[in-house]
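Morning F.,

Quick status update on the modeling queue. The single chain you submitted on Monday has been processed. Sequence for confirmation:
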Amino acid sequence: MAEKQAHDLNGAYYGPSVPPPPVRQSYHRPGRGSGCGCCGCFFRFLLSVVISVVVTLGLAILIFWLIFRPNNIKFHVTDASLTQFNFTADNTLQYNLELNITVRNPNKKIGVYYELISVRAHYEDQRFDSVNLTPFYQGHKNTSVLSPVFVGQQLVLLGADELSKLNVEKNAGVYSFDVKLYLRIKFKVGKIKTWRFKPKVKCDLNVPLSSNGTSASGFETTKCDIDF
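Structure tokens below.
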């Protein structure tokens, strides 16, 4: 009877409504493509910023050079006095070395602040003494004199080749030294101070041994090399 009520004579269905089939929902899962696109945009932006900074900095340095035309500071050892240099049997080096180092600032519009001046004396690549000098400001086109003094004794281990060279120099009465300056400086342009630089200066010296406490003749003014 129920089946008969659900259909009319023409076969039409008048029973309860049939729910439509469920609709499948598609979820978009972020793939690698979208992430790489974002990363690509970020790296392109970062690259453009870096290039802009480099170009701007390069132009600033070029303009600074064209305006002020800075020249390197010049270092010369103009005098050296060696009154003692003995190497004992127990590997102790006894020494007394005094130097005059001229520092020339040739720039017309640039001053120099010397915040740290560390001078180190070496013999056969071995440091036997070091001194720190007083910081100072050097004005335009100015020459200053540094006077480090190395005196004392130090344990130094020399190999056979170094001892052989020491004996040769002892017989000749002239000793070779490497004197190195480790600096921390700033430049001043008008009222502006630059960032800090740490140049290194190397002076290769041949110093005759003095006798009776008097300066020995024969020392020649030596130009030092500076490396920024």
